[in-house]
Design a protein that fits this description.
single chain, 4-stranded mixed β-sheet, binds uridine-diphosphate-N-acetylglucosamine
């Protein structure tokens, strides 16, 4: 398995051009099978999750070409409604395929999804919403089998604002008979991106970004060429990297309100942050202070996808921090690895108690999930001495050219290929 060798202790300076958002691009791939016309998703990031999503579409019979960084998808020949367990186990986002396959074929068969090992990740909300739209659901041999004569619009309420369930309902409602009104929807910016994409195909979706999304069914959808939003989690990761290492870094392409709470927390740490249009510039000098308390919440709350990185930062700040993970119950699995680097963190259930140390030291650690892995890289960049971050497969799922971008900021990081 590939690994990073990182020599810590260098300040970071420079500017980062962000990739398109992983969490926007993946549902857009799923949405591409809603039409038999050509769909172009521009500037897709070169990450393992995107390649896996392309394999899923090909398995259905679609053609997916990557040309100059764009993905060109033609699903006119798609004829299968079944996704093999090998692929759905690799990528949990394949659950979005339920909504779009039901719209396209009125049938879908997918194995129980996999993805990061960060908790139970049930899909009950997806399935009960689909039932309300007229879908019969059964289970056989580890597969979820969905079938309907036609999809019918309905009034739905989500008990929890699940991102994936909101997106799945949009994908299932877009050509349903009548109107679907979804209350309690997730409000993440990626959902607004999906709405823009669907409407560019000829759909009638409104309200994304608020807690009520209205989907008026339309008879057909056309092709589209679409540039997705930039990755706010990647932006946050680089801002936190700079906070940890010191220096000055600018990220371009993401609006400050999409990571408003992170910016607030970094200012609380003592970083200086300037925002202008789609640019965010951070400068970090001297020892920072711990955040007293951070709780992960659905948008616009603090993103769970930045929880591990902010813990890595607090581990070297002055004072103590209490970080509460409300979304995924086992999302502190990276903490024992940070302890190997000298961090002082105690996890009790959903809460991490961080006691800030003056600095961490290099160690050999292993990345067990995507964001936890990124946090280990950041901690190693700020630590004294040399670290090895083993098993890059999870990090490769979500960050394109991670090493190259860090090198461009002045980090010392090598990749050893296995
Ligand atoms: C998406 C993101 C992921 C992010 C997460 C929360 C993508 C591809 N992934 O994941 O990076 O960490 O949002 O911001 O966009 N839940 C249920 N039943 C369900 C569905 C969800 O109980 O049917 C629970 C989950 O266990 C979890 C919470 O709801 O506790 C949030 O999950 P959800 O918003 O659905 O996250 P994902 O869409 O999987």
């Amino acid at each position: 398995m590939d690994k990073f060798i990182i020599e810590g202790g260098r300040r970071l300076f420079g500017s980062i051009r962000l990739q398109s958002a992983k969490n926007s691009v993946l549902p857009l791939f799923a949405a591409s099978v809603l039409t038999d016309r050509e769909v172009t998703i521009r500037e897709v990031p070169d990450i393992a999750d995107v390649r896996c999503m392309a394999r899923i579409l090909r398995e259905l019979g679609a053609s997916v070409r990557f040309e100059e960084g764009n993905a060109v998808i033609d699903s006119s020949n798609a004829s299968s409604h079944r996704i093999s367990s090998a692929l759905t186990k690799e990528l949990r986002s394949s659950v979005f395929m339920l909504g779009s396959l039901l719209t396209r074929f009125h049938r879908a068969a997918i194995a129980y999804p996999g993805g990061c090992d960060i908790g139970l990740r049930p899909i009950d909300l997806h399935l009960s919403a689909l039932k309300r739209l007229g879908v019969d659901i059964s289970e056989r041999d580890g597969y979820i089998l969905c079938e309907c004569e036609r999809l019918r619009g309905a009034e739905l309420v989500l008990d929890f604002p699940s991102v994936g369930a909101t997106e799945n309902i949009m994908l299932a409602g877009v050509k349903a008979e009548g109107t679907t009104v979804l209350q309690g929807a997730a409000k993440e910016p990626e959902i607004v991106d999906l709405q823009s994409f669907l409407n560019a195909m000829g759909a009638k979706v409104s309200g994304a970004g608020t807690d009520t999304v209205v989907i008026q069914g339309v008879p057909s959808l056309g092709g589209v060429s679409f540039a997705p939003m930039k990755d706010r989690i990647e932006a946050g990761t680089f801002l936190i990297a700079c906070a940890i290492c010191g220096g000055e870094v600018e990220v371009k392409g993401v609006s400050a309100e999409n990571i408003g709470l992170l910016i607030h927390k970094l200012r609380e740490n003592g970083c200086k942050i300037h925002t202008k249009n789609d640019k965010i510039r951070i400068s970090s000098y001297g020892r920072l202070k711990c955040n007293r308390r951070i709780e992960t919440m659905p948008f616009p709350g603090f993103p769970t996808d930045l929880q591990a990185q902010i813990v890595a930062l607090n581990a070297i700040c002055e004072g103590g921090a209490l970080i509460v993970e409300n979304l995924f119950e086992t999302r502190f699995k990276y903490v024992p690895e940070l302890l190997k680097m000298g961090a002082d963190i105690e996890v009790r259930g959903r809460t991490a108690f961080v006691r800030g140390k003056a600095g961490l030291h290099g160690a050999s650690v292993t990345a067990g999930d995507l964001r936890g892995g990124a946090a280990l890289v950041l901690a190693a960049l700020g630590a004294e001495g040399v670290s090895e971050v083993n098993d890059l497969s999870h990090i490769d799922r979500g960050y394109s050219s991670f090493r190259e971008k860090l090198l461009s900021l002045g980090a010392k990081i090598e990749r050893v290929y296995d």
